[in-house]
Design a protein that fits this description.
With 530 residues, this protein is mainly α. The chain has helices at residues 3-10, 18-52, 56-84, 86-105, 110-138, 142-173, 178-181, 183-197, 211-234, 240-260, 274-304, 309-334, 339-360, 366-394, 400-433, 442-450, 452-462, 464-503, 517-527.
Length: 530
């Protein structure tokens, strides 16, 4: 038997029937929920601001508390799921997420809502790694697993598409708390059917829980993620640089401990595999590009083109649908084409979407922006399906929770960086390029220079020729910033394509390790004590 035939046979496992696909439907519920929640909160903020009257700092924490906690705890929760049971972690996370969502919906003060958002981040970190890692348990046949991962990944796109639509409908008829109560009817089927359809899985030889590693993981992630947010809000004059320094220093201690302890929280051997580390980097950079695009597209469609939030969401739906379709359609192609070729080609398509924005952006560019997002979304859907499958199949079967958590952390950091870095560059270019008409009052000039929304509100208040002149100038400055940001986004995707071409395996069926090095060492020690 040839080596290729052996590799192919190693990936042909028992094929699942209807129960497996029903389990996939259940596992997609939290994915849909989290992706909808990421979008829908921004629509509820005006009502929250009116009723709870948060300060500007509290309003930022209402938005940021959830992703900060979520990104900081993903690796820890993924590793704990490997040790204590991935299905158990999923059910605990779903129960807690539902209860805290109810508390958030009826929060009487901004402080209580912020605390609820912290709780949602805690339980959300239990949900996400478990859903992806359990797919490997349910789908042992590689062809079915590849399709399942494509469907799972499409849940993020579907949630992003549904977020603006669901948010608009809910807030037209119900108070702002309805966006949090949405979690309850979504999670109840998960709690009922997951125990019936999803088999428990965990590391059979987990070792002890290393509490110092958990503390060092949090000490690494919290300062870095908070530093990114601080950099976006106040720039380098704030605490960003000291936070980065603390995070990197603690991170060095974390890496040192993982190399020395017999029971690491995160097996660093994963990163020595090109398929795994390359796929994670592709995920990170492509999510930065996607979120950066959505950041400026939403503002352009609402503030310059003049669409309502609901209509702006509908304008982006074709691109999100192309993301879903491409992610599913690439499954049969991935059987025959190497990821070393397929992923760079997909990312090159997304680069084309960004370049279309850079060359066609104008005050009435609704159709070009929609087409550009369709092109970008097609490439993103293909790249994410292939890279997510490589993350799972590259990891040892006993470490899929930790591997999934690393991939999810890349997603969350990509979302944070997409808003912070790409948004920060866009804001800086807007302020630099804004040439305001003469005769504006000082307070109007300050509001107009701060944000595009402030400029448009000031223009509406002024009215007449002066207001129209301010509107035109601010729209021109913003779209000039969009061109620069689009070119930077295209460069990020080019880097991701180069990384994919250099690191992802050339074989269509890369053989993943079935047992981690730490498992092998522990098993050999148990057989030959002393």
């Amino acid at each position: 038997m040839t080596r290729v035939e052996q590799g192919a046979r190693a990936h042909v496992g028992e094929r699942v029937g209807w129960r497996g696909w029903a389990a996939l439907a259940v596992l997609m519920l939290p994915v849909l929920l989290v992706s909808v929640d990421n979008t829908v909160l921004s629509f509820a903020l005006p009502q929250i601001a009116l009723q709870l009257e948060p300060t500007s700092a509290q309003q930022l924490w209402i938005i940021d508390a959830y992703p900060l906690v979520l990104a900081s705890l993903l690796v820890t929760m993924g590793s704990l799921g490997d040790r204590f049971g991935r299905r158990r972690m999923l059910l605990i996370g779903a129960s807690g997420f539902g209860v805290v969502s109810i508390a958030a919906a009826f929060a009487p003060t901004a402080g209580v809502l912020i605390a609820a958002r912290v709780g949602l981040g805690l339980f959300g970190a239990m949900l996400m790694p478990s859903t992806l890692s359990l797919l490997r348990t349910v789908f042992r046949d590689r062809e079915q697993r590849r399709l399942a991962i494509a469907i799972w990944a499409s849940g993020f796109s579907a949630g992003m598409a549904l977020g603006p639509i669901v948010g608009g409908l809910l807030l037209e008829h119900f108070p702002w708390g309805s966006v949090f109560l949405l979690a309850v009817p979504v999670l109840i089927p998960l709690l009922v059917f997951a125990p019936m359809l999803v088999t428990e899985s965990c590391d059979p030889n987990p070792g002890r829980v290393d509490l110092p590693s958990i503390a060092l993981s949090l000490g690494t992630m919290v300062p870095i993620v908070f530093g990114i947010k601080s950099l976006a809000v106040v720039g380098f004059t704030g605490p960003a640089l000291p936070l980065f320094a603390v995070g990197l220093a603690v991170g060095a201690l974390f890496v040192r401990r993982q190399r020395r302890t017999p029971d690491p929280l995160l097996d660093l051997a994963l990163f020595r595999q090109g398929n795994f580390s390359g796929a994670v980097i592709v995920n990170l950079l492509s999510v930065i590009g996607l979120v950066g695009f959505l950041y400026f597209a939403a503002q352009h469609l609402q503030l310059i083109v003049g669409l309502s939030p609901f209509d702006a969401g509908l304008a982006l739906v074709p691109g999100l649908m192309m993301m879903i379709v491409a992610g599913l359609a690439v499954v049969p192609v991935a059987r025959r084409v190497s990821p070393r070729l397929l992923v760079p080609a997909a990312l090159a398509l997304s680069v084309g979407g960004y370049l279309l924005v850079a060359t066609t952006t104008s005050a009435d560019s609704l159709l070009p922006l929609t087409l550009a997002f369709m092109v970008l979304g097609t490439g993103f859907g293909i790249a994410q399906t292939v890279s997510n499958e490589l993350v799972l199949t590259s990891a040892p079967s006993d470490k899929t929770g930790a591997a999934s958590a690393v991939s999810e952390t890349a997603y969350e950091l990509g979302a944070v960086l997409g808003t912070s870095v790409m948004g920060g560059i866009l804001t800086a270019m807007y302020r630099f390029g804004l040439d305001m008409p003469a005769g504006l009052p000082a307070e109007v000039r300050g509001a107009a220079r701060e944000t595009l929304a402030g400029a448009m509100a000031a223009a509406d208040g002024l009215g007449g020729p002066l207001g129209e002149a301010l509107r035109t100038a601010s729209a021109h400055a913003f779209d000039t910033g969009v061109v620069v940001t689009s070119i930077i986004g295209a460069l990020l995707l080019v880097i991701a394509a180069v990384v994919a071409a250099a690191s992802l395996g050339g074989a269509t069926f890369p053989a993943p390790p079935q047992e981690s090095p730490h498992h092998v060492a522990r098993r050999q020690t148990s057989r030959h004590p002393g």
